[in-house]
Specification:
Blueprint (H helix, E strand, L loop, with lengths): L2 H20 L4 H18 L14 E4 L5 H11 L39 H14 L6 E6 L6 H12 L5 E7 L12 H7 L3 E6 L3 H8 L8 E6 L22 H10 L2
Parallel strand pairs: 1-2, 2-3, 3-5, 4-5
Helix pairs in contact: 1-2, 1-3, 1-8, 2-3, 2-7, 4-5
Length: 260
């Protein structure tokens, strides 16, 4: 097991313990995007935990806000706030709610959770940066379920029309939406809307890194990340019962042992 995998498993243990203690959280969704978040914050985006509103920073928006535990774990690891804050997750005196609040959480750029809003937020910021001639990028993670929302495709049209090549969208394609409505070939769909589009393994750090660095030739970039919801925990992987569920004491012990 390499060092990065060890860190990812440490973060997963933190997320599991946080959810078990609070009785809240979408653990499987957090695990689905954790590798993507790790690569983004470790190797890609320019941020400064000591100055969260640094004017030259890149912007990241978690549109699927219910996966907040993944983002909180990464932000704490990066030093935006103490890891001990996770012990208070979803309590009355905590700034870490079930969905991220940009008015409370250092490093959170948009309050999300109402699905379909993250891409319009990211679009507006990316357009503003283009107008101001600022050299920085805007990244957003969407869930496959919110790709049912009309706001996603309206934003996709506007982004391509304005040639927003500073906008990079990662779709967490864990296929949890397939039970309700199959989305099919998302790469082809985004390409038909004028985007540069690629499919990757959303748990392969090298692929995530290489494709997020791609130049998109005057087009916004869509990365279709094939992922597994609940990645790394046998009873949780692709199991809809774990969409919004916290482990009990016995389940927690089994899951923590799986991550050793």
């Amino acid at each position: 097991m390499d060092n990065e995998e060890l860190v990812i498993n440490d973060l997963k243990r933190i997320i599991l313990n946080t959810s078990a203690k609070s009785g809240e959280g979408h653990v499987a969704s957090a695990f689905s995007i954790l590798d993507i978040l790790w690569v983004l914050y470790k190797k890609i985006i320019k941020v400064n935990p000591l100055d969260p509103y640094w004017s030259e920073r890149d912007i990241f928006i978690l549109s699927k806000g219910h996966a907040s535990l993944g983002l909180y774990a990464i932000l704490a690891y990066k030093g935006f706030f103490s890891i001990s804050e996770l012990d208070k997750f979803c309590t009355l005196d905590s700034f870490l709610g079930g969905h991220p609040d940009c008015n409370k959480v250092p490093g959170v750029e948009a309050s999300t959770g109402s699905l379909g809003h993250g891409l319009p937020f990211a679009l507006g910021i990316a357009f503003s940066k283009k107008i101001q001639k600022k050299i920085s990028d805007v990244y957003v993670i969407l869930g496959d379920g919110e790709c049912n929302e009309g706001t996603i495709w309206e934003s996709a049209l506007i982004a391509s029309n304005h040639k927003l090549d500073n906008l990079k969208c990662i779709i967490d394609y864990n296929h949890s939406n397939d039970r309700a409505l199959k989305l099919g070939d998302l790469k082809a769909k985004f390409m038909s809307f004028g985007w540069e589009s690629y499919v990757i393994d959303g748990h392969n750090h090298e692929q995530i890194y290489q494709f997020l660095l791609k130049k998109s030739n005057g087009k916004p970039l869509a990365i279709i990340a094939e992922t597994i919801k609940g990645k790394g925990i046998k009873q949780m992987e692709s199991n809809p019962a774990w969409h919004h569920k916290s482990p009990n004491k016995e389940e927690l012990e089994i899951m923590l042992n799986e991550l050793l």
